Structure formats: C-alpha cells, structure tokens
Amino acid sequence: MAFGRLSSSRKSPLKMRALGMIMALGIAAVVVQTAPGVTSALMPVRTQAGDLLAASPGREESREPGLLARIMGHGARERRIRELEARVQELARYEAAARSMAARLEAYESMLSAMGEPPARGATARVVSEVNGPFSETLLANAGRAQGVEPDAIALNEGGVVGRVTHLGERSSRILLVTDFNSRIPVMGENSGVRAIVFGDSDGLGTLADRPEEDPFLPGERILTSGEGGLFPRGYMVGAAQMREGRWRVAFSMSETRGGFVRLVPPQRIPTPEEAPAIHQSDPANAIPATETPDAEAAMETGGEG
Amino acid sequence: MRHKPGRLQRIAMSWRRTGANTRLAVGAILVIAGWFASLSPFRLAGMDLPWPLMILVAAVGWSRAGLYMRPVFLLIVLSLLFDISTSAPFGSYMLVALSAYGVQVMAQSALDMDNGAVLETAIPFFSLATGILALWGLASASSGYAIKILPIMMIGFATALAYVLTAPVFNLRTRYGGRAVGG
Question: Which of A175-184, B75-84, B104-113 has the lowest mean pLDDT?
Fold first, then answer.
C-alpha cells in the first residue's frame, strides 16, 4: 500500500525527531520574520501571490479578472470594474491637465486684463413634451420665469446646444430646437476656425451656410457656437462637421444624448456703451455703489468675445 | 434475496477500496476548497460566521493513521496558502497544523487506543484545541499583544464541526476496521 514502506511513529522515533525538527525550523522561520529586513524581502512574494488571486499576472493590459473572481463567477463584473477603473484613471489625467490649463488661462487673462466667459448660471428643467410637427420643432420644459429662466435662454443637454427659449412662461419655457429650419446659430469650426450659420434641415442634420470665408471645414471637427450675434455664448458644442452631397452639414450632438432634461442658461448679453456708460469713480457725485449698477456688473461679467 | 446497495452505500464501498494516496489527494482538494471559501465572508442571517480551518481538520484527520511524512509535507505546502491569504508570517499555519498533528500522534502512541472509544473520540478534539491554541499564541506573538479569544474560539468550534462532518474523508486507514496502513 501507499504508506506500507514507511513505518509509523511507534516503530521509528526518527520520524518524531524529524517532525520536531520541522516544527523547530517553523518556529525559527516565524521568529526570523519579525526582523524588518526579512519581512521586506518577503513582501514581493506576498504581493505576487496576492496579485495572482486578485488579478492574473502579466495581464494588466488585458484587464483580466483574477483567479478567485473567475472561480467565484464574478469574472464579468470584475472585468467591467477594471475597465471603469482604467477609464477613471485616464479621465483623472485629463482632469489634471484641464485644471492646469484653466489655471494658466486665468493667469494669462489676469496679465492681459482680458474678460473671460461668464460663470455658468441657469436652471435645469425636465422636458415635458416634444413637438416635431409641421410648423416647428420645439420642446416644452417645466421651468419658467419663476425658476429664474430668462428670455432667449440657451437650452443645453449633455451633448451640447439643444436650442433657445422662444416663449417664456411663468413656470414653463418653449424651446426652439436647433434642428428646426427657423433656428439660426452662429458657429465656427473648432480647429479650422471657419465661421458659419447653422440651421436645421428636414433630414435631422444641420446645414452650414453664410460662410464669410471660403475655406472648408475639417471633416469630423467639432462645431461650436462662435458667440457672434450676442446671443449664444461662445464655445458651446453644437455637433460635428461632415460633407454630404457637396454641402457642409452638422450632425447635432444634442441628438446623441437626450436624457429628458435641459439646462437653461441665460443668454449672452453685452450692453452697449449707451446702455451702460462708464462711471468715473473719482467724481463723488457719480460714486454709485456697485450693487446698484446691475447692467454694468453684467457687462463686466459677460464681456469678452462675441 | 440480496438487497441491492443504494448510491450512498456504493460510494462508501468504493471509498473503502481507495488507496491512501487517493485519499490524501481528495483531502488536499477539500482543504483547498475550504481555503477558497474562506477568502469570501461567510454570512448567515446577517451574522458574520467563521470559516473552519480546514488545514487543521486535515492535520488531525491524517494524523489518526500515524506519523507519515507524506501528509506532513502536504500540510507544509497547503499551510503556505493560509499564510499568504491571512498575511501570517510564513510557517505559522505549518506550526499550527503540525502541532495538532504531533499531539495526535503522540497521544495515540502513549495511550491505549484499541479499547478506548472515548479516547478515540476525545483525542482528535484535544488535538484540534492544541492547534487552535497554537494559532492564538502565534497570532498574539506576531501582533505584539494578546488577541481576542472569542473569535479564535469561534474558529475552533467551526473547525470542530467541520472535523465531525468530514473526518471520513481524511481517514487514511485503508483497511476497513483495521489499523493504519503500515502501522
């Protein structure tokens, strides 16, 4: 039999001694590991063993789940978590870069005394109804003047510009969609810088017209609001440029993500010098507290391009 | 007319015919399965319950056949899994398992086991208690303070229960009703 050749403890005290020696070695091993140097030397072994359990070794790129997860049947979930973790790490790098760029931009604007874009304000509203009738393409949102929505407010969703408030009620707003033929938005190519006016068309795409320059857009480049005309603030995403049948068209980005909510931000208003004349602070007669000059304050806030 | 054996009886009969190596392999698989299970929490009715220490069950179960080096080496190898998963110093679970193994073997050698059913039943639990005590001692020594006894006792109870349920799997006495092979 399997252990027939071996003798038991009764017949061989040698084995008991061997067992005792093994235990003594074990005790010595445990004692030796109390030394920091030994503990740190063994750390990679433990780490690799832990990695083997938690994640397959050498497969970091493929984001494969670990042995344990696969045995427990959590493989798909673990894989998804790893993908999302990688995505978060990637986005964190972008966030850091964006923060750095924003800080530099702020510093440059400060050095140049340049007026930046106004801070984001507005109200978020739920889309109550969507009308795509023969007359106009509009949305009805459940926020109005009572919620702080202003006339001609800009409607945005996760994708970009949705439209503009054309009728403002006390508790509701009607938004003319960018896909409507009557909608006119001054836009520009993000990379090419080519300016145009975009309006909706029957096929759901926008048409880029009234281009002052003859230069073409870059295929696939982002189309942003140019801020010209003094209504839409500059830099809001409208869509992506594409050439269709010899014409430059825009695939509206707002159509890709319709979550049922819109953000209604105040339009860009730059008062004329006549509307908001400069005030000479040195003259005590004209020294009006800043809180009493909302137009001037708004002018300071909304200054810049456009 | 002869009664046809049922499925369980057939399994029991085939288990009696299996050799010591097969039994060792099956026991090792059970220990690994228990170790895997212990990597996830065991909750029952909102309570955190301890997993049994299968390496200790194996040590006591295998030692009942006497002192053989193959189970000892297998215990040393399997104990490394427990060392890694619990962040214990390497060799800790080996000492726990071998202390129980050694106590069982020495008790069997010293006492007359042939005519003592009580001893036959009591000594494995005494060996398990020795292993649990060794675990407490090692954990306390490596932590630098006396760790709580209640969680260790809970592990001991779970291990004892697992031993009662799985003892036949770790029995290396391959001759039914006889003495240990080679013993």
Answer: B104-113
* A304/B32: higher pLDDT: B32
Instruction: Verify whether the Cβ–Cβ distance A3 to B98 is below 8 Å.
Output: no
Q: Do B183 and A26 touch (CB under 8 A)?
A: no
Q: Looking at beta carbons, which residues of chain A come within 8 Å of B94?
A: 22, 26
State the complex-level ipTM.
0.75
How close, in Å, is residue B99 to chain A by CA atoms? 8
CATH of residue B137's domain is 1.10.1760
Does the structure show a pLDDT above 50 at A5? no
Quick check: is B183 in a domain?
A: no
Q: Above 70 in pLDDT, residue A295?
A: no
In a domain, B60, yes or no: yes
* CATH number for the domain running over A123-265: 2.40.10.340
Give the residue-averaged pLDDT of B58-83: 91
What whole-number distance in Å separates Cα of residue A155 and Cα of residue A84? 30
Does a structural domain hold residue B11?
Answer: no
- Given a cut of 50, whether residue A255 has pLDDT beyond it is yes
For chain B, what is the domain count?
1
Domain that holds residue B141: 17-170
Contacts 24+ apart (CB under 8 A), B174-181: B174/A1, B174/A2, B174/B16, B174/B18, B174/B19, B174/B20, B174/B23, B176/B16, B180/A3, B180/A8, B180/B64, B180/B65, B180/B66, B181/A1, B181/A2, B181/A3, B181/A4, B181/B20, B181/B65
> Does B171 touch chain A if contact means CB atoms closer than 8 Å?
no
* Model pLDDT, residue A216: 85
